[in-house]
Amino acid sequence: MIMQVPFVDFSWQHEPIQSEIDQAIAQVVQRGDFILGQTVAQFEQAFAQASGVEYGVGVGCGTDAIALGLQACGIGPGDEVIVPVNTFIATVIGVLRTGAKPVFVDCDPATALIDLEQAPRVVTAQTKALIAVHLYGQMVSPQQLREFTTAHGLLLFEDAAQAHLAQREGHRAGSLGVAAGYSFYPSKNLGGFGDGGIVLTNDQTLAQKVRCYRNYGASQKYVHTELGTNSRLDSLQAAILEVKLPHLQEWNLARNQAAGQYDEALKPLADYGIFPFRNDGGPGHIYHLYVIRVTSESPLTRDNLQKALGERGIQTGIHYPIPCHLQPAYQYLGYHTGDFPHAETLAQEILSLPMFPGLSEAQVQQVVETIKSVIQGD
Ligand SMILES: *Cc1c(COP(=O)(O)O)cnc(C)c1O
């Protein structure tokens, strides 16, 4: 019999707090404040405080958090925004929604994070901001981000959708720049039972603007002072997230520990061209995903390894198989194959292994042993 290892398993997280969640949902239903109201305000404050930031504004999803956050920063048509090319497409959608142009930069193949040494080349008179994407749960170096954005007079916006409560160099995700966008998509480190997102900022005026945008652009009921939209964090989601938030640090730590076990167990596979990414963030890396590289030195291609693992009950993912500049809908931006060699190579090599709080050491061993036996052709 094969022991299956799922890619994500919520039971360890949800079972101990299930009755608390049920109660929180029942209270929202009882009060009937389904839109905004007390629950959303409470969660906004709690999440901002946990991240060491003054204001939180709950929105409908992470994509909207980026779009509305950037818009509140004054980003719009004619502006250029620097974005890592190997991010999830929502970062790009957020920029395009403001009317600004996304300008891509390649990644460091050792970490998969944006290569800031390549960023100065793309700065023009139109460049207004850089979006730091803390990919897989590892923050981009706060010091290097500050040096780059200060030197070029750019706004720093964080896409922290994979980095809830991540830390690096003594700084928390979401506290580095003018504002940050988060997602509460169910599988994120802090996830609801549906879509959700938040904008964090220390700027009161900016927070006020996002509050206005998310609620039809109304500064008071039926007075529309901004060209807004409808994108609010759902009260039921806020109630669930409020119950989960106090456990997040423990869950993140559990992910980091499982990652340490993977790192150790995978060491012998370096001889077969299989490597984890480098962790420059120490315990502050919250491993939204645990990703390995199946390089050209490996006897099996990434796709064949993934297929063989699947047949042996090990679920894996690819984050992401096509870099943003090669996505069919974005060809009009004018990029081509070969423009970003690191991201293009990684797209062929990366494989996300099972990762969730509650992943046991035995499961980690099972995953790695299965990779070994497949690679060795057993
Ligand atoms: C999940 C994610 C988003 C988008 O969040 P949604 O809530 O799905 O809109 C944005 N950026 C990154 C890096 C993400 O992982």
From TrEMBL:
Q: Name one GO molecular function term.
A: transaminase activity
Keywords in UniProt for this one? Aminotransferase, Pyridoxal phosphate, Transferase
Q: Which InterPro entries match?
A: DegT/StrS_aminotransferase (IPR000653), PyrdxlP-dep_Trfase (IPR015424), PyrdxlP-dep_Trfase_major (IPR015421), PyrdxlP-dep_Trfase_small (IPR015422)
Q: Does the keyword Transferase apply?
A: yes
Origin superkingdom = Bacteria
Give the family this protein belongs to, as stated in its UniProt record. Answer: Belongs to the DegT/DnrJ/EryC1 family.
User: What protein name applies here?
Assistant: DegT/DnrJ/EryC1/StrS family aminotransferase
The species this protein belongs to is Spirulina subsalsa FACHB-351
